[in-house]
Every structure is written in structure tokens, then in C-alpha cells.
């Protein structure tokens, strides 16, 4: 679905940040509410990197769980699944999202060039 | 606002800003022989969001209020839009439409002759065909519209309950159509979409006597993922409930 768009954006970010150096892995942080299918993302990454300087690099995804802060009881709880965003302690639906919507490139692993 | 959060490793701390990026500072050294890690910390949607902000600024500069209209395929966006354009024309508001469609101009053709400027975006031009509109695409569509002659712009997104929810296109307001033939559980299956909108139009209400659709359950499901969402019951076919939706649209222009 939109994984191809995401990979194009990731490619642009990485290509700028690598500054001519060779990249072995791209580390992402992806919240579970981001509707990203890991297999599709990996497949699309291969497509956008084909025959370019990032070909062969790996996408490594750090999945961030959905954490909700309850406005009623004040507890922070991790959502067991993303379908119903309610407080796991008191069941209130009045919650603020603490994490789960992240979508960023956190770092790159660069190949050390030996001189 | 300071916000406490916890990391996967169980540590926690407060931030003095909204948390939309990570703090991946635990391991900046080489974690395996032959590589070195450099921190980037760049949001993947930054480029889209910058383009969205530019779109919004262009619209604001021309005094145009924009609505991003989303739904699954076949929920009735275009039929609702036909009625909305007729209404806006009748009350003297000048409307424009950015029409997202993967391949055809069928929807854009249906909107012709209603007094609105229509800019068609076929998303199938790229390889694979996009399933959503993003801000750079909408920017191209805006170039083909005379914004100074508009009061309101409706961005009719590609029919899809997943991807369009993720992309800010630069609209001021976000609305979705959910038809009762899709079942009560859609808010639970697509919480990101239902969370992203402020108004849910429940369409095809004229079919209610023929379906087992449980409207109360649907409302509870919407509330469970988005307690703040407004819900309006409509039928694009019979016109039921359209007055409230059109009043909402007029209020967007006024605001």
C-alpha cells in the first residue's frame, strides 16, 4: 500500500544523511499504529534501492508498542492490540496516546572503509 | 506540555515537548565489526508534512478552506460530493475539487457541470499506482486551480481506509464516509482512519431496513477509537440528513 511511498521518503533521507558513505543498515522506529506491513516495507525497500548506492542495505524496524495514558485513572498502559484504544486498567476510552505513532529513521549503520 | 513516557527497556522520563520522534541514544557506537552507527532521527513524513504546510499556506493566502474527504471504495463520496457541490452553488459559495482517482476520470466527469473547478489527479502515473493522495500530489493539483476564485476546496481522496489516513495533504479539516453496507466493525479494523477525522458521515441510511446493521454498535465502535468524532447519518440517495452535513460544510467556510 503506502509502503512504497514511505520507502521513497526513507531513501531520500538516507541518501542525504549517508554523505557518500556506504550503508549496511537503516534503522527505523515504527509505531504500531502506523499500519506498516514489515514484509511489504522490506520488499519495497529492495525496489527503490535497486541498482542504486543503497542496493543491498537492510531496513531494521524497531516496533514501538501503543502506550496509552488514561485521563480518568492516570495509569499508563500498553495496548494489547491496536483495535480498541482503551485503558487496560480501568477500561476508560478517554486516553492520550503516549507512543505508537512514531515513524522515523533513527540511525544508519555505515560500512567502515579500511584505508 | 511535559509528557512522561517509558521506553521498551523499562526506563522512563519526561519531555518538555510533544513526543513525535525517538531518542535512540542508547547505542551510538559500533555494534558489529566493520560498521559505525550515525544518528539521523528524521521523521519519514517530514517532506510530506512540509509540502502539506505549504499547501495550507497557499490556501490560507487565498482565503480557501479545504476538507479532505476519505472513505473506502464505494462508500458514496462522489455522490455526496455531487449534492454538496449543488448545495454550495445554490448558497453562493464557490467550490473547488481535487479529485483523486487511480486511473480514470469517471468521478471527475460526474462532478462536471456543477459550477465547481475540478482538478483531476490520476495517481496511477507512478509505478504501481498510489492508493492515496499525498501533499506533493495535491500541490500539483492546486496549481491547476484558480484559488482566488474559491471559498472551499474538497479533496476527494482515493477510496481506501488505510493509506489516506497517514498523509496530511494540507486540508484544514478531515471527514470520512462510512456506509452501513460496510458493517459495524470498520472503526475497529481501521482505527487510524477513524481516529484521523473529526466527522464521520454514515451513508446509505436508506438501506437500514434491509440490513442487519446495528447503528448503536457502530456508534460505540467509533467512540471507542475516537471519542471526539462527530457522527452524522445521511443518505446520498434519498437526501436524508444532508442538511446537517451541508451546514457543517458551510461552517467550515465561515470558520
How far apart, in Å, are the first and last alpha carbons of chain A? 43 Å
The quaternary organization reads as: heterodimer
What number is the mean pLDDT of chain B? Answer: 87
Percentage of helical residues of chain A?
10-25%
Going across the biggest sheet of chain A, name each strand in turn. 2-1-6
| Order of H and E elements of chain A | HEHEEEEE
Count of separate DSSP helical elements of chain A: 2
User: Spatial order of the strands in the main sheet of chain B?
Assistant: 6-5-7-4-8-9-10
Task: Assign an overall shape of chain A.
Answer: elongated
Helix/strand-derived class of chain A? Answer: alpha+beta
Tell me about the biggest sheet of chain B?
Answer: 7 strands, parallel
Low-confidence stretches of chain A: none
Sheet/helix structural class of chain B? alpha/beta
Rg of chain B, rounded, reads 21 Å
Q: Can you write the helix and strand succession of chain B as a string?
A: EEEHEHEHEHEEHHEHEH
Q: What is the helix content of chain B? A: 25-40%
Distance between the termini of chain B: 27 Å
Task: Give the rounded overall mean pLDDT of chain A.
Answer: 90
Quote the beta fraction of chain B: 15-25%
Number of strands of chain B: 10
What is the 3D form of chain B? globular
Amino acid at each position: 500500500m503506502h509502503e512504497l511511498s514511505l520507502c521513497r521518503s526513507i531513501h531520500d533521507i538516507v541518501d542525504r544523511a549517508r554523505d557518500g558513505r556506504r550503508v549496511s543498515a537503516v534503522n527505523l522506529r515504527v509505531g504500531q499504529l502506523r499500519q506498516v506491513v514489515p514484509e511489504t516495507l522490506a520488499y519495497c525497500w529492495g525496489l527503490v534501492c535497486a541498482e542504486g548506492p543503497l542496493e543491498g542495505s537492510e531496513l531494521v524496524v524497531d516496533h514501538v508498542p501503543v502506550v496509552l495514558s488514561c485521563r480518568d485513572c492516570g495509569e499508563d498502559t500498553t495496548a494489547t492490540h491496536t483495535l480498541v484504544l482503551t485503558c487496560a486498567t480501568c477500561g476508560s476510552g478517554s486516553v492520550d496516546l503516549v507512543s505508537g505513532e512514531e515513524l522515523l529513521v533513527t540511525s544508519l549503520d555505515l560500512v567502515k572503509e579500511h584505508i | 506540555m511535559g509528557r512522561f513516557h517509558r521506553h521498551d527497556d523499562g526506563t522512563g522520563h519526561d519531555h518538555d515537548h510533544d513526543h513525535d520522534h525517538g531518542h535512540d541514544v542508547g547505542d551510538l557506537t559500533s555494534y558489529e565489526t566493520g560498521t559505525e552507527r550515525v544518528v539521523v532521527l528524521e521523521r519519514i513524513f517530514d517532506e510530506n508534512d512540509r509540502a502539506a504546510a505549504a499547501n495550507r499556506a497557499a490556501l490560507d493566502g487565498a482565503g480557501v478552506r479545504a476538507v479532505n474527504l476519505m472513505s473506502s471504495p464505494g462508500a458514496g463520496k462522489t455522490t455526496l460530493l455531487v449534492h454538496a457541490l449543488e448545495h454550495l452553488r445554490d448558497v453562493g459559495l464557490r467550490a473547488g475539487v481535487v479529485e483523486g482517482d487511480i486511473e480514470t476520470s469517471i468521478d471527475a466527469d460526474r462532478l462536471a457541470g456543477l459550477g465547481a473547478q475540478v482538478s483531476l489527479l490520476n495517481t496511477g502515473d507512478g509505478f504501481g499506482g498510489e492508493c492515496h493522495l499525498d501533499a506533493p500530489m495535491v500541490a500539483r493539483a492546486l496549481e491547476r486551480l484558480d484559488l482566488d476564485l474559491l471559498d472551499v476546496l474538497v479533496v476527494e481522496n482515493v477510496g481506501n481506509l488505510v493509506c489516506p489516513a497517514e498523509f496530511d495533504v494540507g486540508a484544514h479539516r478531515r471527514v470520512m464516509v462510512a456506509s452501513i453496507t460496510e458493517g459495524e466493525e470498520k472503526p475497529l479494523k481501521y482505527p487510524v482512519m477513524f481516529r484521523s477525522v473529526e466527522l464521520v458521515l454514515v451513508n446509505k441510511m436508506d438501506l437500514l431496513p434491509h440490513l442487519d446493521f446495528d447503528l448503536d454498535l457502530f456508534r460505540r465502535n467509533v467512540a471507542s477509537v475516537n471519542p471526539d468524532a462527530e457522527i452524522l447519518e445521511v443518505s446520498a440517495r434519498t437526501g436524508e440528513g444532508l442538511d446537517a452535513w451541508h451546514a457543517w460544510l458551510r461552517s467550515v467556510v465561515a470558520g
